[in-house]
Amino acid sequence: xxxxxxxxxxxxxxxxxxxxxxxxxxxxxxxxxxxxxxxxxxxxxxxxxxxxxxxxxxxxxxxxxxxxxxxxxxxxxxxxxxxxxxxxxxxxxxxxxxxxxxxxxxxxxxxxxxxxxxxxxxxxxxxxxxxxxxxxxxxxxxxxxxxxxxxxxxxxxxxxxxxxxxxxxxxxxxxxxxxxxxxxxxxxxxxxxxxxxxxxxxxxxxxxxxxxxxxxxxxxxxxxxxxxxxxxxxxxxxxxxxxxxxxxxxxxxxxxxxxxxxxxxxxxxxxxxxxxxxxxxxxxxxxxxxxxxxxxxxxxxxxxxxxxxxxxxxxxxxxxxxxxxxxxxxxxxxxxxxxxxxxxxxxxxxxxxxxxxxxxxxxxxxxxxxxxxxxxxxxxxxxxxxxxxxxxxxxxxxxxxxxxxxxxxxxxxxxxxxxxxxxxxxxxxxxxxxxxxxxxxxxxxxxxxxxxxxxxxxxxxxxxxxxxxxxxxxxxxxxxxxxxxxxxxxxxxxxxxxxxxxxxxxxxx
Length: 509
Hints:
globular, 20 helices, 0% strand, mainly alpha
């Protein structure tokens, strides 16, 4: 049986690319576009902020656990049917999410949406990779990276515009016509593709890793709310996650039919890319993705749509540089654009972002984010090409594992950013108050009350808000720096490759 790229014409490849990219873009856009509407869901769903956060948590946990099923489904029905099933689930669930009248209704719809997203992104990436010849797979992953990185960067802008000019329900409804058109398009024009090998699902291993993953993601997303390990609920979930993961390892060790074939971890390039995806993308880049909208909304005080407009240059930089990185991967090597991406990203997160504070002009911050966008855009294509180029029959498994670790690493990164921002805020606030002279502050408040014709209580409240603003400004600076330092840690596997290249060149010379 021939490879997929040998069985399709260039015109069919273009048609396939459009359908897959639209599906991926729609699915991944939903991960950030929904974030901006969370406060607007409380009244319609009759819940509070903590309750509505389950809308995001449910989606994330469903997507992470469904990812590990895709390789098995691929061998049963083929990648085309997996992609179509994902489109059907995601589109149908989007309609029900938009029509949700209660929190339980919304959470159920989001679970099915998350499941559909996993089927879409894994099958699309695996099919796109195999549909291009080996000498053009960098371009294929650059196109895929356009959806993976450009979509979440565009989310706040589009979500803000929809909520301000139409209604929050259209954040979900907009997926329905796009999903239906793409489903029909894919049904008639996508080629059938099924891998050469067959696998049986190890249900016991899948059950254990699913329980471990769901427990871990709930801990990471709700830990701040419950006070981390001072909470009995968080402690029990953490224990359950660890025990379930140990049972998963035991099940995999004694079973001949393994859920995750360990031979994939003998491929050095995949292991390096896997670690980079977890540590650099998850622990660092996801922090930056999370912090930038908060910087403009919470510190600068911009409305959602204006925040999105300030992030738009970053999104455009990602969109332009991602295909370019893919082309360079094919012409040179995936290592060269990856080295460039890491250098630009570390420079921007260690030098530019830690200088962002309340007094930074918004236009200046927006322009500097272009540099961050170039680093992000150059990252996805080469690291994905590096991961998949030697996998062969393990391609879908490799794609699944990369996205699985993206979810888990990204959850860690978001939790770290939330915790660091809150901790730094109150540490700086305490530091500000400790340095103050009580007598001088009292005199200042009295003068402020007299000058503004307000009561001393209001003057105190105003002074408190100014203190809090300065503390938050400093907290963002420190948290951006910490995110950059996590990026240094995540870059160590890339540094290993770079030193390896230097040694090879030295011996060759």
